[in-house]
Amino acid sequence: MSRGMQCDFVRRFAEGPSIRAAFSLPTEAASVTVLFGPSGSGKTTVLRCLAGLDRPDQGFLRMEGEVWCDAASELHLPPQKRSLGFVFQDGALFPHLSAAGNLAYPLTGLPQAERHRLVQAMVELLGLGGLERRRPGELSGGQQQRVALGRALIRRPRLVLMDEPLTALDRPAREALRNDLSRVFRELAIPVLLVTHDRDEALQLGDRMLMMQDGEIQQDGPPAEVFTRPRTPALAEALGIGTVVKARVLGSEGGLVRLLAGTAELLAPHEGPLGEWVHACIRGEGVAVERELDAHADASPRNRLRATITGLEPKGPLVRLHLDCGFPLEALVTTWACEDLALKAGDTVLAMIKATAIHLIPVM
Amino acid sequence: MDWTALALSLKLAFCTTLVLVLVGMPLAAWLAFSRRRWKPLVEALVALPIVLPPTVLGFYVLMALGPASPLGALCERFFGHRLPFTFLGLLIASVLYSLPFAVQPFSAAFASVDPRLLEASACSGAGPLKAFFRLILPLSWAGVLTGLVLSFAHTLGEFGVVLMVGGNVPGATRTASIAIYDQVQSLDYAAAGRTSALLVGVSFAALVLTYSLRKVRLFP
Q1: How do residues A260-282 score in pLDDT, each as one tens digit?
Q2: What's the domain count of chain A?
Q3: Residue A182 shares a structural domain with residue A324
Q4: What domains, with CATH codes, occur in chain B?
Q5: What ipTM does this complex have?
Q6: Is the dihedral of CA B63, B66, B71, B75 positive or negative?
Q7: pLDDT-derived band at B46, boundaries 50, 70, 90
Q8: To 10 degrees, the CA torsion angle through B209, B213, B215, B220?
Q9: Closest by alpha carbon to A61, among A6, A99, A120, A143?
Q10: For residue range A86-103, what is the model confidence (pLDDT) as tens digits?
């Protein structure tokens, strides 16, 4: 029972909502838990309470049987007494120390040679070779975040907390670091709690996702599942996405990737390397529906799929159609198109997915 | 030229600055980071020597260190002699008198360190002492240097407090500023002029040194 981290606490603000977090994290194996939610949902507050940078007004926090925080008995370990690493949004590197100096900062009571060895290992793991003696001001944003990550990992803490570590980076740097992160997380067996509002980040890096909204954790599950099956309409709104389906890469040619999602084959554009498995994200606006006229629709190679309507959900001028086409698919059509075609649950239709509406995210 | 007086002034200024480093830094760090409700009281107390006439401060120090006060009696037993009209007594008075000139720049410099760096330090497992020596001090060295030079120069030029607490004992409490006063009293304007010019030169040099050092960037 003392394994892992358990917490259940409330942080109140004089003006604004209360933030409540109640969850547990396994800490024995490497796993990445994503704390996902729109801005203002309280993600950062939860992270700061876990780190000890902020004090909950009520509740407790335990790490492997050790009490880190217990509001009832006014016990509150300061951050330096908690075995953790924290990566800030913009790195928060120490400007007067070199990259190597920043990496070595958390190390204490080690012989010089051992310090050097650990720093060198981190430099190699994070691809920072040749930059050891540079100050943060002489590093690019991506390089700075790598140093910040190394500083958080170097003393092998029990938990690493990351507050939107990729948000401040430009797109290429963000994607490069995202790929490296998934590699680094697997290599070091340290549990990670990652705060983000970026869907790609959550899908690629997360083993588990806590969906936060209005100051509370609303849903807990594998990221693809939370994205595809939000528990409430409000969550679906916040997640702002149609379909997420795990698919196998069958092959690629000329920038087009052939996928097997459920029992259906899809074509999607993608540049850059992919593993064997991907998450295919399909925007509902990119799916059109028509009455099935031709019997040979299934044979069409261009994302034309025979589908059964499993549900209709009016959304203002639009209707959200839930389809089954070998995998669960969501389409967003106008109300008049829906009436025109006289769509109802149980009907068989032809779903056409625009290739450009499919977005692929590698699965780690 | 009264070289003994000048040497004494420099020695007093040096010792005062040294004591202010040891006493002023922790006090400044507390002022910069504490969130106690009664902090303004301490801040006002530290700043008091700026507005008080030196004679008032000197008077209270004289009373406090004199044999009639419990503190003075205790000091007398401890040091084996009375403190007023000795170098040690003068040093205590100088430290009090120059306290704000050290503590205020120190404190302002410490407070200007980005709080997120302090959070990053704590999350790296560093306690307050490590954060102070490895992070806060290196990042606020310009303010610390200003405080050091200001208290040095300020002690070099003090007059009222020295007169009240130290008197005019050659070699022990007769500083350059007292010597100038003496020389004028005895109508030796030439000597007073030389000592004054020297004091101006030393003070100016100290300030020039500070302001040029502040331009040096230790890190990009």
Answers
A1: 998 888 999 887 778 888 888 88
A2: 2
A3: no
A4: 3-215 (1.10.3720.10)
A5: 0.81
A6: positive
A7: very high
A8: 180
A9: A6
A10: 999 989 999 999 999 999
CATH number at residue A312: 2.40.50.100
Q: Which residues of A touch B117 (CB under 8 A)?
A: 92, 94-95
Domain match, A191 and A264 both? no
Q: Say whether both A168 and A266 belong to one domain.
A: no
State which residues form the domain around A152: 5-239
What is the residue-averaged pLDDT of chain A? Answer: 88
- Kindly tell me the burial class for residue A3, based on how many C-beta atoms sit within 10 Å of its own C-beta (0-12, 13-18, 19 or more): exposed
CATH number, domain at A208?
A: 3.40.50.300
CB A61 within 8 A of CB A5: yes
Whether residue A346 lies within 8 A of chain B, CB to CB, comes out as: no
Residue A125 token pair: 């793991």
- A333-348 pLDDT, tens per residue? 888 888 888 888 998 8
Q: Stretch B117-140: mean pLDDT, rounded?
A: 94
Distance from CA of A98 to the nearest CA of B (A): 9
Cross-chain Cβ contact A94/B117 below 8 Å: yes
Nearest to B116 among A84, A92, A105 (CB): A92
Q: Which of these three, A212, A239, A266, is where a domain ends?
A: A239
**Domain co-membership, A62 together with A173:** yes
